[in-house]
Amino acid sequence: MPAPVQIRHLVGGDWHSGRGDSLLSVNPAHPGIVVAEGRGTDASDVHAAIAAATAASPAWAGTPIHQRGALLLAAADVVDRNAEAWGLELATEEGKTKAEGIGEVRRAAQILRYYGNEGDRQAGEIYASPRAGEQILITRKPLGVVGVITPFNFPIAIPAWKIAPALVYGNTVVWKPASTVPLLAIRFAEALTAAGLPAGVLNLLIGDADVGDALVSHAGIDAITFTGSTGVGRRIAAAGATRGVPVQAEMGGKNAAVVLDDADVTLAVEQVMLGAFRSTGQKCTATSRLIVTAGIAEQFLGELLARVAALRVGDPTDDATQMGPVVSDPARTSITSGINTASRQGATVLAGGVPYSDGPLADGYFVAPTVVDVGSASVDLWTDELFGPVLAVRRADTADEAFALANDSEFGLSAAVFTQDVTRALQAVDRIDVGVLHINSESAGADPHVPFGGAKKSGLGPKEQGGAAREFFTHTTTVYLRGGRPGA
Ligand code: UN1
C-alpha cells in the first residue's frame, strides 16, 4: 500500500503545504486507508494565488495561441504516460472502477489534445460591411483571471475541460478542486507544470467551501466556471452577478431513460445499467429515472432486475468489480436516507435499498445498486438528485406520456430514449427538453468537440467544450476595419 501523498498547493509556480485546516483524503472502499493528507489552504493563499494569476496574465495573453496550445499538447503526453498509475489513484481516491479511472485519465489527455490544437483553428470571423472600403472583424480576447471550481466525481476530466480551454484562450487560472480528491488535482497540475507552463498561469488551491467562497467573492477574479450541486451553483452565480463577472455553472440533473415498446430490450437494459450504475451513479448525467411503456415494462424490468442482482459491487481496484463505493460517508448517508424517504412516501424498492451491514463491503462507503418503483406516489426521489446508484421507475401507457414524464423535472441535462422507430426518435428530439439527448445509448457521456451542458435549471451561462467553450472563455471585439481614403 503506497504511503499517503502530501497535499500541496501551487501558487505562483511554487508548491507549498497549506496553512489551513488539516485535510484527509481516504479510500472510500477502505476508509482506514489514507490516500493523501496535509493541510488545506486558507484565505491568505487565495489572495496570493489571484495576485500570481494577475501578474502572469499579460505575458500569457500575449503568447501566441499556437504556443499556448503546444504546452497543452505536451501536458497531454504527460497525462497519457501516467494513465495507468493515475487511473489507479483515481479509483483509490474517488471510488469509480480502475477501468473507468484509467479511461478518465486518458480522456483528460484527449481533452488537452483537442484544445492544444485550437491554436491552429479559426480564430474569429469576418462580416461584410454595409459601407464601401470596410470589413468588420470579430476578434477574441481572454477574460483575464478565471476561477475554476470542480467537483469530486470526475477529478481529472472536468478540470481538463475547464482549464484547457481557459488556458488556450489566454486566461490564467486559480483552481479549487473538491477537497475529497486532492491527489488527482495535484497530478493534473503536475502534468501542466512538467509541460512547462509558466509560473502563475495555473494556481491550485485545495480546500473546503470557505476557499471557494473567498475565490468567487474576490475582486481579482474576472470569470468563474463551476460544476457541482445546484445550490452551490446558484450561490456562485449570485456572487458573480453581484460583482458583474460571467459565471458558467453546470449543475444538477435528474436524467430519464425512456424505453418504448419497440425498443431493443437487450441493448436498452445494458445501456440503462451503464447509465444508472457506472461511476456508482455519481454523474450529473447519470440515469436516475426510468420511464418504460406498458407493453414492454414487465419484460424490461425483469431483465433489468436480473442484471442488477448480478452486478459485482466491490473494491474498485479489483478487475472483477463493476461498481465501487460512493465517495464519502456523508454521501452514503444522504443517498440511503433518500431511499428510505421514498419508501415512507409510498414507493416500492425493487432492488437494493438496504445497507451492507456485514461482509467486506460493510466498512466502505458502499450503497447497493437500487431500483425503486415510484408508481403513482408523489415521491421526492422522482424530483431530487441523489447522486448515487439509485434508479426511480415509472410506467407510461403511451410514448407521448413517456416523453411528458421525461420532461417532468426542473432539470434538463440529459436523457436517453430507446426505440427503433425513427419517427418516435425524431419526436423525442422535438419534445424532450434537455441539453444532451441520446437515442439508443446511455444518458452519460461527452466529447471534447461538441457542446456539453443542460437545458432548464441544469446550467447557467454558455455550455462547455467544443466551440461553446470559446464563448465563455473569451470576449469579442467587433473591429470596423477601413483603409485610408479610397483612391488616395
Ligand atoms: C459524462 O457524462 O461523461 O459532473 C460527463 C458531471 C458532468 C460530466 C458528465 N459534468 O457528471
Automatic annotation (TrEMBL):
<dbReference type="InterPro" id="IPR016162">
    <property type="entry name" value="Ald_DH_N"/>
</dbReference>
<keyword id="KW-0560">Oxidoreductase</keyword>
<dbReference type="Pfam" id="PF00171">
    <property type="entry name" value="Aldedh"/>
</dbReference>
<feature type="active site">
    <location>
        <position position="250"/>
    </location>
</feature>
<protein>
    <submittedName>
        <fullName>Aldehyde dehydrogenase</fullName>
        <ecNumber>1.2.1.3</ecNumber>
    </submittedName>
</protein>
<comment type="similarity">
    <text>Belongs to the aldehyde dehydrogenase family.</text>
</comment>
<dbReference type="InterPro" id="IPR016160">
    <property type="entry name" value="Ald_DH_CS_CYS"/>
</dbReference>
<dbReference type="InterPro" id="IPR016163">
    <property type="entry name" value="Ald_DH_C"/>
</dbReference>
<dbReference type="GO" id="GO:0004029">
    <property type="term" value="F:aldehyde dehydrogenase (NAD+) activity"/>
</dbReference>
<feature type="domain" description="Aldehyde dehydrogenase">
    <location>
        <begin position="16"/>
        <end position="479"/>
    </location>
</feature>
<dbReference type="InterPro" id="IPR016161">
    <property type="entry name" value="Ald_DH/histidinol_DH"/>
</dbReference>
<dbReference type="InterPro" id="IPR015590">
    <property type="entry name" value="Aldehyde_DH_dom"/>
</dbReference>
<dbReference type="InterPro" id="IPR029510">
    <property type="entry name" value="Ald_DH_CS_GLU"/>
</dbReference>
